[in-house]
Amino acid sequence: MNGFPDLRADFPILETGVHFLDSGASSQKPVPVLEAMDRFARTSYANVHRGAYKLSVAATEAYEAARQRVARFLNADPDEVIFTRGATTSLNMVAFGWGMQHLGPGDRILTTVMEHHANLVPWQMVARRTGATLDHVPITADGRFDLDAYREKLDERVKVVAFTGMSNALGTIPVTPLIASLAHEVDARVVVDGAQLVPHRGVDVKTLGADFLAFSSHKMLGPTGIGVLWGRMDALEEMEPFEGGGEMIADVTLHDATWAPIPHRFEAGTPSIIEAVGLHAAIDYLDSIGMDRIFAHDRHLTAIALERLADVPGVRIHGPRDLEDRGGVISITMDGTHAHDLATILDEHGVAVRAGHHCAKPLMRELGVAATARVSFYVYNTEEDIDALVSGLRKAGELFGVG
Amino acid sequence: MNGFPDLRADFPILETGVHFLDSGASSQKPVPVLEAMDRFARTSYANVHRGAYKLSVAATEAYEAARQRVARFLNADPDEVIFTRGATTSLNMVAFGWGMQHLGPGDRILTTVMEHHANLVPWQMVARRTGATLDHVPITADGRFDLDAYREKLDERVKVVAFTGMSNALGTIPVTPLIASLAHEVDARVVVDGAQLVPHRGVDVKTLGADFLAFSSHKMLGPTGIGVLWGRMDALEEMEPFEGGGEMIADVTLHDATWAPIPHRFEAGTPSIIEAVGLHAAIDYLDSIGMDRIFAHDRHLTAIALERLADVPGVRIHGPRDLEDRGGVISITMDGTHAHDLATILDEHGVAVRAGHHCAKPLMRELGVAATARVSFYVYNTEEDIDALVSGLRKAGELFGVG
Amino acid sequence: MALEDLYREVILDHYRNPRNRGRLPDPDATAEGMNPLCGDEIRIDLSFEDGKVAAVAVEGQGCSISQASASMMSEAIKGKTREEITELIARFRGMMSLEGGVDPGLDPDRPGAALGDMEALQGVRQYPVRIKCASLGWTVLQDALNF
Amino acid sequence: MALEDLYREVILDHYRNPRNRGRLPDPDATAEGMNPLCGDEIRIDLSFEDGKVAAVAVEGQGCSISQASASMMSEAIKGKTREEITELIARFRGMMSLEGGVDPGLDPDRPGAALGDMEALQGVRQYPVRIKCASLGWTVLQDALNF
Ligand SMILES: Cc1ncc(COP(=O)(O)O)c(C=O)c1O
Ligand SMILES: Cc1ncc(COP(=O)(O)O)c(C=O)c1O
User: Fold this and answer.
1) Closest ligand relative to A193 C-alpha
2) Selecting from 2.10.109.10, 3.40.640.10, 3.40.50.300, 3.40.50.720, what CATH number does the domain B33-287 have?
């Protein structure tokens, strides 16, 4: 099996010959997604929820249909789906909207050392403002969520456990249902950063165990400018609005306001309407392939890449080297060669990888590196992309006299 | 003069024959804007600021070029332009990011009774959390910012004056430079809600007098999912980040973070990249017409509409009836006929107007109405749209036995 | 034309002259509700005697559809038991949710049957946004029954 | 090929064997800086005698371009006055901002002249994202001068 070659024609950017191995940062967008947005904007656009005229009704229906589509994708209730600007905003909404209400001195927030800054910095800010303390679950030697350490750190004072559903730097996939059920035993709320998990593995929120789940459209073939916060209704009810404005109110007087029902309560102002239509089309596209097949495809390429990378002189792989509980993200360094030099050299070979700290600086310190080069796969990648990657790396090794 | 008939072909939605008079809620998008986004997504898309490879460099350049384009449109410095999700988010960023730092018991926030909820509810929330008090400048009998009352309410305890640059319900345009200079005399910060002003009149921030200016792309021919917060650099420096996450940090450790320079400090996470390209194209489009001509065009249609509406039995106009300091927004009611019934009847005549409280419930109470029907003009409107409006209103009057 | 179908004379009449307007001094049940999107409001007071509605009073403001619908409803429930009202609510909902606005004819079991004047509200089905207006009073009535 | 142009032997040599590595015990001027986008870091200590740089020490970590550039810079500024260093910074910036990478030939007034080894960094111009790497040390040097 060599991926889904039929799909590649849907991604015009690939015609340039680029070996795009940076979907972990953001994915490319297939033509059906771009066309759905364009068609909607040309024929049915108006603001939503506000007008009594047909165009506005059509736009509102399209927007709410997108919400239902997301709900179906997650096996959730549509009222539990909140459209946001992206995973970062979703996580800030929980940290501030839930955290400022329910955290105080003596309370503990538990996160991990491998979080993306989006699931770390907001909790630092909220800890500072509420007096709660922040603690971090370490990772094991092969870059996995350390369950033993977690059990030790978990106690009745822990009010929220926030962790990544899949590490954007290591590819690790923590066992969310287990972690969540342990957290629920001490009555902590569980926040899962699904920015990588949802696009690559899909989730069923009925079995995931999370109370909140955040993700972005742009990493799952959809447009920029929109993301999702899913929350179990009882968890959402504990949350204060993060932003005030139009559409989120029931009534407003000069000095006071009451909130609209959920989900509108958390969607202040004009939402990302055209983008919701695009996300809808992206989910249709993903489901037409099938999330299981997508995960298997990522895994297949990961297996090949892990094997071939091990043969390249000087290359070191950070994170799990086997396929257990991991997705299609591989972080590497090359002895004597900085990750940015690797990225530049690979770029000259038509291979796009990301070099840097991947918005996970504490994890980089943990790994003892300043930066890594990160390879990440998605539906349009093939074994040829790995060929190009490996030959680019060999070239880098030669240039820098490695091995 | 009957508008810009040449432009109408750029708005495919008009081919349905709709008389779109709801640009105040959101404008239609011209083909050049849609094509700019589509082309970018097909040929140059990648995440920004993160990659060392060519695609990412191209995307970063496109994103930063959009920032420069916005800056040029406002006569501002590019570093003072922050991309947000929309005007609502921009205003919340100021209210929380600036207000939580600089307001406390005894301090006063001054806003007006005609604000959109987006410039009222966040201040209510911040007042509640900081102990500051909120007060409101009234409007005059013809719906204008009451300067005399403002002078009386202004004192040394006022720390921020937040008001609309153009009322979305009445069309009124307060004299921002004067209001701002009075506020600056007492060292208050000036926040202008430019959601209606910027798309219809344009602004020069060097003479506007505001310290902060918020607006949305979707009301100015651009896509949904993006907006702008402009701030004078010294004002932005007083602001704390509203969201934490990637791209907005200088360094992050497990327990602490330092912030990146402005504007990145206020842009956590993956921004609305494709949308920035669309906003860039929208501003090019607006500037190719010329903001002066756009304002004159709105004004021309407003003059005709005010005159013809006065002749329709039972119609009442809320807000200024002359052209002084007002834009192309007209709120009306019809005796014995509810605004929603008006909107439905107009819709049947192919005329799209908005009916409701226009996210300005306190203003509706002030006017003594539950809702109005609102007519708003933009570049694609013509006198024929007014013909259709007037004949629809007459039909409504007949149906409801008015006059 | 569709507009005449929506704004039938009987609807306009109830809008201009709403029945059972006001408050009851000492109601057995009361409820109020509003449509946050458009701001329409309805409040209903009910009093019962022998398990039947003895008096009903409606207050509110909003569009012709919401106010006329509530007015007609107030007429329809007088003298009815809770069970009969529950049945009426179901019939009304059935009528509103009928797709396409096909008139189900004279079948006495058709959802609109026994709704009297209120059958005039069938035209609303062609205006999906307005269905919420027509339903507001009935939602509040349901709340009052649960009072 | 362009890559050989970027990674010239002299650059790789400075990267593998950075000159003037370390800290000065009691520097007259010191500064540090980093590129927040990629995390590259440079710290510079300077000591002056008779108005001239008597000793320089550089610490840091990052890519070959940023580290080699700083190493070459540390060589170039030894024995120079503040004025001469300011002139050197200007020459370096001029070289980096030259469009298109055209070699300005042997004109002694050309921006790259007198930069010695550092002229090897001209290849960076073809990689706009890497210009920030090459410039980092120089920005920190400027800060140290303003110390
Ligand atoms: C005056 C005014 N302020 C703020 C807003 C909010 O803008 P948005 O909904 O795009 O966030 C609007 C638009 O509805 C407006 O007209
Ligand atoms: C694990 C993880 N969390 C959060 C984010 C933030 O997502 P966004 O930048 O779309 O807000 C990312 C993507 O960069 C991610 O990989």
Assistant:
1) 2
2) 3.40.640.10
